[in-house]
Amino acid sequence: MKVTAIQVQQKKKERYNILLTKPIALAPTKK
Q: What is the DSSP letter of 31?
């Protein structure tokens, strides 16, 4: 299976979103 550039971008985006949302979930009061 060939990994396309779009798939790579989506994976990076997902990972970045997880990094962004995790601290928010742990500390919802801190914005």
A: -
